[in-house]
Amino acid sequence: LHLSPVALDLGFFKIRWYALAYISGILLAWWYINRLIAQPGAPMAKRHTEDLVFYATLGVILGGRLGYAIFYASVTGDMMIFSPAHLIRVWEGGMSFHGGAIGVLLAMLWVARRNKVNLLRVMDYISCGVPIGLFLGRCANFINGELWGRPTQVPWAMIFPEAGPEPRHPSQLYEAGLEGIFLFSLLALLFWRTSARLKPGLLSGVFILGYGLIRILLENVREPDKGLEHLSWGLTMGQTLSIPMVLAGAFLIVRALRGKHERPDAG
Fold it and tell me: Which site in 85, 209, 247, 248 is 20 to 30 Å from 8, CA atoms measured?
């Protein structure tokens, strides 16, 4: 499609779609979470979301970059990324969702303990907003022509110049649809139409389990990162890192369904 990774080029300054995706994702998620906490039974106040946005942003960037360095770059022998000069170059790509998720979890733990609010219920509300960022991030991956799919002959196959002349799955769009639109819609339905938000850990469990299963499935059509094509245990790195998510998500769902529920007027 001849898409450019640069959204706006002013000569002396460039704005990239990747950066816009991160900024827009954070702002839209912030706005949406504020709508959620305005409903009865919210575990936190608006001032808490402001702290969460700040620390979660740090968690996404630092965790995503360090996660990529540890889970991917170090496995392939690219140790240069561990230098401070390379770690801060987030605009070049190279972000791990799993690393970012760990960073956001630590941010939520810090805010929850600092403000003495229920961690699981905070996770539930944050999880409802995360698919917004996932959708925009995957769209940016597609525009950048990165993280492409495996070779295929399906009618909608596309050629990504950096990947060679073979038509490939536009796996970034599959991920945008499933990780973004589908998970957002599912969590929104559970939040607005059921009592799921009053069952600590249920919404976050659905998100974690759902993302893990989707990632494991789509790794079958997504090209593995260079140097990670043939892991000895037969799974891709993305699938390997998603298995603990599936187990953790299932645990949270079972725990939530069996546990004590919050009252609608609980704060």
Answer: 85
Q: Is 241 left (phi over 0), alpha (psi -120 to 50) or beta?
A: alpha
For the chain, what is the largest distance between any 2 Cα atoms, rounded to a whole number of angstroms? 59
pTM of the model: 0.86
Q: List beta partners, residue 6.
A: 16
What DSSP assignment string belongs to 56-88?
Answer: HHHHHHHHHHHHHIIIIITTTT-GGGGSHHHHT
Q: Interior CA angle at 175 toward 169 and 179, to 5°?
A: 165
By three-state DSSP, how is residue 15 classified?
strand
Report the C-alpha gap between 265 and 263 in whole angstroms. 5
Q: Convert 230-258 to b/e letters by CB count within 10 Å (16 or more is b).
A: eeeeeebbbbbbbeebbeebeebbeebee
What is the per-residue DSSP string for 119-161? HHHHHHHHHHHHHHHHHHHHHHHHHHT-S-B-B---TT-B--G
One digit per residue, the tens of pLDDT, for the chain of length 267 reads: 778 888 888 777 788 888 889 889 999 999 999 999 999 889 988 888 888 888 888 888 888 777 777 766 555 555 445 455 555 555 555 677 778 888 889 989 998 998 899 999 999 999 999 999 999 999 999 999 988 999 999 999 999 988 999 999 999 999 999 999 999 999 999 999 999 999 999 999 999 999 999 999 999 999 987 766 667 788 888 899 899 999 999 999 999 999 766 665 444
